[in-house]
Amino acid sequence: MRRRLFWWEVGGFAAVAVLGTLLHFTYDWSGKWVVAASFSAVNESTWEHMKLLFMPLFLVTVVQVCFLGRTYANFLAVRACTALVGLALIPTLFYTYTGILGYHLMWADIAVFLLADLGMFLLDFRLLSSGRRGALWEQIAGLLVLWGLAFLFVWFTFRPPVLGLFLDPVTMTYGLPQ
Length: 178
Hints:
Blueprint: H1 2-29, H2 34-39, H3 46-68, H4 75-101, H5 106-129, H6 136-158
């Protein structure tokens, strides 16, 4: 059972890496279609890069819960926890390395995304492998966190707060380009 979980996690890591990379370009490829803006990056802000991690993870979670949900009674609670860790890793790693260097590097930005993805799935594997059973309230809380994050990523695409996390360093604007 642990081996099966390992391969599901490897597949999840790969799917998030590939889909997240593709979603970086989807909005432009779609001709700036508003629907595509809901799930893909619309600018170069840190928040939009966090969306590139979360949206594929949300899709992978829907698939994995269908196949693993009965086997791992704590699946949704664990996934919500690891999603929050992965999302926190992106700004933490990005602002740490750019604060040290004073500038950003494309390869380092990609490495930050992949490290957040890897860290998220390694923690996911460890927590799911522990065999700890999740209480019903924990599963409901996990589900609410995941859906809440999905809502926030869509909402803040169209109505971003005026905070540095949402600022596009290229255009110096927030949210969708005008």
